[in-house]
Amino acid sequence: MRTKAVAPAALLTLALTACGAEIAPAGDAATGAAAAGQAHYPVTVDNCGTKVTYRQKPARAVSNDVGITELLLALGVADRMAGYVMPDDKGRVDQVAWKDGYQQTKWLSKQQITKEIVLEAGADLVFAGWHYGFSEADGFTPQALAGLGIGSYVLTESCRSGKGQERGVMSPLDALYTDLANLGEIFDVRDRADRLIDGFRAQVAAVPQPERRPRVFLYDSGEDKPYTSGRFAAPEEIIAKAGGTNVMGDIADSWTTVGWESVVQRDPEVIVINNYGAPDAGAKARFLKSFPPLAGVSAVRNDRIFVLDYVDLVESPRNPAAITALAAYLRGVTAG
Questions:
Q1: Which tens digit of pLDDT belongs to each residue from 263-300?
Q2: Cα–Cα distance, 64 to 100 (Å, whole number)
Q3: Which of 3, 286, 313, 315 could form a disulfide with 157 if both were Cys (CB 3.0 to 4.6 A apart)?
């Protein structure tokens, strides 16, 4: 399914002059900077297979969820945000390089994002994703926002593949780099976006690899059936770049539900727990160790369970650091 963001109605009245532009007088740096910024627009980016045009720099963006919010904060555009929507169970946010950005904008709600929240915030752009805020069932979609004169951008990790509700159209790190580049264009901070992308690529490339590639299962939640990561969610490349093999990497979807039988058959040597909310990581680990069908699985038998936070495992600027941390653990597993 394709989505298309529409610029706010107020922005559509912007007069774009092709000639006769006035040059700011020497010394009028503010006017010159404003003119240079305006000259950047309109910009068009490819978002989930649809060309979307943004008429000017967003001034009151609203983001949904922690990873999405931190993409904007890492780009240094907190001053262009009306705020963010995010539960308070997604881990600490005071130790990241862009932590000051959280203080520069507003925590609008700890509940589900709604049209009412973004309207009250005076949003001119909503950055969310399918299963990360956007939902046909709730009537909160890019099309619905367009009808209110509010633009949108869809998280690339969440792009619909065109096969039912399956999500994912590119590898997870490519999705991260694509969003940083696109948002760099939308907010006119492409230089900063490029620096982030180059830095992340170098960080990932420098990660030492284990002696062999252990089999890894990502456990998010679920007792009757486990919720996990397929090929297009961030854990796929976090595991791969750390030197492991995602045992569910053949599933052409992002986050999805599988059967315990398939976990047992693939016999993961390591289980990575996605830590957020309740039950916490400790409770999840206790369940895995006490669940009879998993008793013979290598990861449970050898007590090889590693924990990463939610924001590490969804598309976010924390993905490269998560790769580094998991790689260190896998090197210990293979060396033992």
A1: 999 999 999 999 999 999 999 999 999 999 999 999 99
A2: 18
A3: 315
